[in-house]
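Protein modeling request. Please complete all fields; requests missing the sequence field cannot be processed.
Requester role: graduate student
Desired output: 3D structure, token encoding
Chains: 1
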Amino acid sequence: MMDRVRAVALGNSPADILLKNGRVVDVLTETIYEADVAIAEGMIAGVGSYDKAGKIIDLKGAYVAPGLINAHCHVESSMAVPEHYCAEELRWGVTTLITDPHEIANVAGAAGIHYMLEAGGQMPLNYYVNLPSCVPATRFEHSGCVMDARDMIKLVNEPGVLGMGEMMNVPGVIYNSAEVQKKLDLFLSLGRVIDGHAPCVRGKELAAYVASGIDTDHESISWD
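Delivered output (224 residues):
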């Protein structure tokens, strides 16, 4: 297969599909340039000047860009079913979506998470779930479910589960809550991603939070 892809890239063999007259959006160099895109064996073989293909599509100046990734969202918070929510994301160029279904888990527990996973299997995009880390968000809340590390163990190997959703319990991380540590240890032992949620946490507290194995934080509250 790769022999043929290389032959197409070199221009020695016709592509399966050739996108002509497009404007390629290069997200690495932050430039847009006119080029053809040659596709072979389901792969982009080359971007440049090509003229032979089994099927040629004239883009007439349309933009060609990588699919966007929505790395953090809460599908159910939109108040739309996953099928409708994902259709709208796809319309705007999102081809991969990672949802943290903590709202539906607060109400329906594991059954709600299973529903979100099953719905994702019907989507025409890459749909993943990060398991909610804080159900409920605080111990002062009254909801339909409480999920501890034992509940998460039952779900962690379900198809479509990538890692753990935003760890909102910052004090629990920093001050060694036993239950929080069990959740962190579970995902760290599996080499899974752990999302963060640490608005305005700084200095040594932030260092301790990051040192706990948390990879990301979408809470960009201030410029620095």
